[in-house]
Amino acid sequence: MKSESRRGFTLIELLTVIAIIGIMAGMLFPAINAVRRKSKIATSQSTFSQWCTAVNRYKSVYGFYPNIGTKYDSAVDSVHKLDDSAVTLKFVKALSGKAPSGSALSSTDRTALNRNAEEFCAFSKEDYAYYSSTIDTATLLVDKFGNYNIRVIFDTDSTGSIKSIAGVTIPDDISSAKSGTGLGIDSAKGGIPARVIIFTAANDAKSYDGVTVSPLSASEAADIIAIQ
Fold first, then answer.
1. Which of 1, 40, 157, 171 is 20 to 30 Å apart from 194, CA to CA?
2. Structural domain boundaries enclosing 144
3. Secondary structure class of 141 (helix, strand, coil)
4. pLDDT one-digit tens code per residue, 27-47
5. Residues 6 or more apart in contact with residue 199 via CB below 8 angstroms
6. How many domains does the chain have?
7. Pairing mode of beta strands 78-81, 206-208
8. Does 223 map to a domain?
9. 5 inside domain
């Protein structure tokens, strides 16, 4: 009985299969990147919302917002830039009731930032730009894109809205120029009903690994906004 010989693939057939796989991979990778981007945006918004909730809890307990700036001015809304390590350190201590490393607050910090050392919010290592032995002095929080240009705004004038904020890059969704109504946090007309706003802007994005500052392009970052 004569056995049938099996025909193998020719070189042209193999190259055709490889080319098809390459085309399919080229179509799939952008979809995967889009999913990852959406996941980072959602996770960042969730984190910022937790921080907003912590700020509001702090306000309900102490009767005022965390004093993380150079002074506490109840006559205007206050904007704080967390790309300043000193401001970020105060923000973390005020909301977590401890230093970034987990060590207890000094008596000075308790008096200035959180006298009961109450934990309103927990920060994880992933929330920081880099976590090293100097975390208690060199502290920077980041969103999930690695952007440390985080802006925190408090309704310190207690009007129930946040408005007339200048000096920061504002995402389109809270910009008066983009709203179609002339309202936004950069407008004195009425601003946005809120007590706390925390955001990063894709056009104001930088990363830092403890050594090198690297600008991020708009495609490497995103507008992340939490409003409460």
1. 40
2. 11-227
3. strand
4. 766 667 788 899 999 999 999
5. 48, 150, 151, 170, 171, 174, 223, 224, 225, 226
6. 1
7. unpaired
8. yes
9. no
